[in-house]
Each structure stands twice: as structure tokens, then as C-alpha cells.
């Protein structure tokens, strides 16, 4: 179920010369572009823009499954041009937030992604680093996807895959991927050492990009923040599964 690809990025102006490999998170099946886009006017972007909405394959807003308690109803990606991935509908006619602002009371933030829940995010407890599971990604054999929140990571932490399970239920086989919190340790980058990883997967009509911070660049050097920045080169040996790699 996991797709793997590698990406590398060095602090510039240093010369690139290191190749690393990372395992990307399991993705959903191909999502369809919503027939209707949402007009948003957000302080973050200072102007109105069309926010693309993706649905799981074969569904639209009226066919979305109902959210279970603490399931993520929408995932908002703010890496570049913002877009939304809808996962389920809130119960009782409640609307799932698609706001680009993280202070709407229903958001858990992880890097450039905002996870929206139907419940008040303030009610989620704070995770203990290395001990608690912050969220679980659940994928069925039919590629149906759920993300269920358990707690919020403390400030100055990052997330990592801490375990996985396979369970057989009356509805079929399900794969569970558990994520936990880890302190964000900022080590100085060595010469030609990568400072950030980018994993890029094309999901028409958007790009799904996962970033991972590795180390702090030395004085007067800057770590690129986008995979199209200067000194970022595409890896032509990348796997042919829809993912692209950069070095």
C-alpha cells in the first residue's frame, strides 16, 4: 500500500551532491475535481481565489460518507496554491470548515496541511511525545481513506509514522498507519548536506507535496522552501507511480 520515492535538497549556494530516500504516506485513490469551487477571501492570501476541492474517486458532496467521531472531514493544503480534499460530511447538517485560517476552532495544523474536524479542536488533549498516537490513517482494500485524530502534538514538534496494523473486519481488510509526535531537533547542516526533503505526487489538477525539515543552513545560506526553487533538480530516476523526486 505504501508508495516510496526519494527527494533531496541542499542549502544553496552549496553544490548538491547527496541523495536520500524517504517513504511517502499512503495516498488516496485518484480524486475527482469538484464541479463547484468555493470562493474564498482569506486574510492569509489577502485576495480572493478559487479553491479547488477534490473528492474520493466516484463521489461528490452528496455521496460523501458520514464522519465518525474525530474523523478529519477536510484536509486543506497550503503549500503553494491552496486546495481542499474532502473526506466525509459532519453529522446533523453541520458544515465542515474549508477555511484557510487555522484559528477557526476546528483545525489541527501539521506543516503546510490543516486537518479540519467537525468537533471543537480545543477539546483534543495534548499528546505526549514518543508515547501517544496523534492520528491514524485508515485505508481499506478498496482504497477508501479515513484520518482519525486522537490528540494534538505540542508546539515545536513534528510527526512520524510510529506503527502500523492490519485488521480484518466485517467490511473487509483495513490498514492502520499510526503517527506520533517527536521534538523538532534543529541540527546545523554539514557541507553539501540536504536541509529539506520534498515528495511530490501529481493528483490532477493539483500537486500533493510533503516536506520534511532536516537541518539548519549555515549563516548567509538559505534553505529553499519550494521544490521549484533554484538549486532544486528533478531526479530522472524517480519511480513511475505518479510521484516525482527532486535533488
From TrEMBL:
Gene3D superfamilies per record: 2.20.20.150, 2.20.20.160
UniProt keyword list: Signal
Keyword Signal listed: yes
Signal peptide: 1-17
Keyword Magnesium recorded: no
Origin: domain of life: Eukaryota
InterPro entries linked to this entry: Argos
Protein name: Protein giant-lens
Amino acid at each position: 500500500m505504501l508508495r516510496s520515492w526519494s527527494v533531496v535538497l541542499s542549502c544553496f549556494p552549496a553544490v548538491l551532491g547527496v541523495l536520500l530516500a524517504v517513504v511517502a504516506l499512503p495516498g488516496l485513490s485518484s480524486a475527482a475535481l469538484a464541479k463547484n469551487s468555493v470562493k474564498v477571501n482569506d486574510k492569509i492570501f489577502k485576495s480572493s481565489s478559487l479553491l479547488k476541492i477534490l473528492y474520493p474517486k466516484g463521489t461528490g458532496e452528496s455521496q460523501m460518507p458520514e464522519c465518525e467521531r474525530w474523523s478529519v472531514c477536510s484536509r486543506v493544503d497550503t503549500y503553494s496554491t491552496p486546495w481542499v480534499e474532502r473526506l466525509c460530511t459532519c453529522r446533523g447538517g453541520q458544515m465542515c470548515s474549508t477555511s484557510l485560517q487555522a484559528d477557526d476552532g476546528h483545525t489541527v495544523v501539521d506543516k503546510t496541511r490543516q486537518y479540519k474536524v467537525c468537533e471543537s479542536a480545543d477539546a483534543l488533549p495534548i499528546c505526549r511525545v514518543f508515547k501517544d498516537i496523534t492520528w491514524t490513517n485508515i485505508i481499506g482494500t478498496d482504497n477508501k481513506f479515513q484520518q482519525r485524530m486522537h490528540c494534538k502534538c505540542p508546539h515545536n514538534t513534528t510527526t512520524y509514522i510510529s506503527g502500523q496494523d492490519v485488521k480484518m473486519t466485517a467490511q473487509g481488510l483495513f490498514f492502520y498507519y499510526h503517527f506520533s509526535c517527536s521534538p523538532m531537533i534543529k541540527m546545523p547542516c554539514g557541507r553539501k548536506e540536504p536541509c529539506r526533503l520534498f515528495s511530490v505526487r501529481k493528483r490532477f489538477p493539483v500537486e500533493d507535496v510533503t516536506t520534511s525539515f532536516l537541518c539548519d543552513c549555515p549563516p548567509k545560506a538559505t534553505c529553499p522552501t519550494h521544490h521549484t526553487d533554484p538549486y532544486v533538480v528533478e531526479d530522472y530516476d524517480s519511480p513511475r507511480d505518479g510521484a516525482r523526486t527532486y535533488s
